[in-house]
Design brief:
The chain is an alpha/beta fold and 304 residues long. The chain contains ten helices and ten strands. Helices cover 38% and strands 14% of the residues. The radius of gyration is 19 Å and the shape is globular. GO terms for molecular function: oxidoreductase activity.
């Protein structure tokens, strides 16, 4: 049986002039445990040396409910200060628009404040990709668009994206933007398959957006499946993992990457060896039969 196409070695973010690796590394837990700058730098090197160029953080990463807002950005900023040459090796992405305890604020004034604050913490003069973290229902998309376009015009942001937006919310914001969106970041995993049938990925392909998948391992449930559905998905992934000599996690990343939308999984591990291992997902190939077997297991019922 013929194999599905291999993922590209790099992907252009629309017409932004930015190319990214087919897999990304995320820093949700980057600042946990009192990690030192040197320890943090080891993780950054692990990702870049493995060919993972897209590094994704957010201003709220590090926030524990009472404190820590901005800690992940600040730690990465310390790494970049200690080794300035690393900046040119990465596509730096961050997110904003969540303002504890409101919790969402995309008023023009706050967006300008949040973007500037991220740049200060990261100790850079611009980020390559800035994403609205979650939609603020009380903000008119035209107001949001004006604030984001102003930041692009000021040279603070190269390209724009959204995270956790519905299809309609994405299209509304994109319609008001002069600098069109290049990426969308929904939750996608072999256990979170809504986007395959609810139009999110179809819309992304129509708009030319790169889908960045957060929590691609189902919040760790694929590693230790608990219920019958999770075990069935794990077994379907294991069929390919065992045949190609990789871990179930790597098979899961590659399963997402086989989709024609060009899904970019965001690896969440904060262990260097796991980050390096994840990069091997680019070499895993799927047949249609094996790919659909995972989908059927996730659906919990046969295809129509």
């Amino acid at each position: 049986m013929s194999l599905l196409p291999a993922p590209p070695q790099s992907r252009s973010l629309k017409d932004s002039g930015i190319s990214v690796s087919p897999i990304a590394w995320g820093m949700w837990r980057f600042a946990e445990g009192g990690r030192t700058t040197a320890e943090a730098a080891t993780l950054v090197h692990a990702a870049l040396d493995a060919g993972i160029t897209l590094l994704d953080t957010a201003d709220i990463y590090g926030f524990d409910g009472t404190g820590g807002f901005g800690d992940a950005e600040s730690l990465l900023g310390d790494v970049l200060t200690s080794e300035p040459s690393l900046r040119d090796r990465m596509v730096l992405a961050t997110k904003g628009g969540i303002r504890p305890p409101l919790p969402y604020d995309q008023s023009a004034a706050y967006l300008a404040e949040a973007i500037d604050a991220s740049l200060r913490r990261l100790k850079v003069d611009h980020v390559d990709l800035w994403q609205v973290h979650r939609p603020d229902i009380l903000a008119h998309p035209q107001e949001v668009a004006r604030a984001l376009d102003d930041a692009v015009s000021a040279g603070k942001i190269r390209a724009l994206g959204v995270s956790n937006f519905t299809v309609a919310q994405t299209e509304a914001l994109d319609g008001f933007l002069d600098n069109k969106l290049v990426a969308t970041q929904p939750e996608i995993s072999p256990l979170r398959i809504d986007c395959f049938e609810n139009g999110e990925l179809d819309s992304a392909m129509a708009l030319g957006l790169a889908p960045l998948a957060w929590s691609p391992l189902g919040g760790g449930r694929l590693a230790v499946p608990g219920n019958a559905r999770e075990k069935a998905v794990a077994a379907a992934l294991d069929t390919v993992a065992e045949a190609q000599g990789v871990s179930r996690q790597v098979a899961a990343y590659s399963w997402l990457m086989a989709h024609p939308a060009g899904i970019i999984p965001i690896v969440g591990s904060q262990r260097a060896e796991r980050i390096v291992e994840a990069a091997s997902a680019t070499g895993i190939r799927w047949t249609r039969s094996d790919w659909y077997a995972v989908l059927v297991a996730a659906r919990g019922e046969a295809l129509p």
